[in-house]
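Board notes (copied after class):
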Amino acid sequence: MKKTTIEGVIVQPLKMVSDNLGVVLHMLQNNGPLFEKFGEVYFSEINPGAVKAWKRNKRQTQNLAVPVGSVDLVIYD
């Protein structure tokens, strides 16, 4: 699959902190460079092979974390 760059789209791996008890994943911190403001947090489970679509937006800031598995995300500019 060919990957292209879209202005304003940033892919950042989650920072992992682990010890013998488990792992903590840092998604977003209010003093980090990608933080703009807080709006809402919700969780969505996607079944294998399912396709979910969101509405069309002219401008939107979306912070998406995938802690388990992987997601193919389509962004059209």
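Comment from the instructor: Residues 43 and 65 are 10 Å apart (CA to CA). The chain has no helices and two strands.
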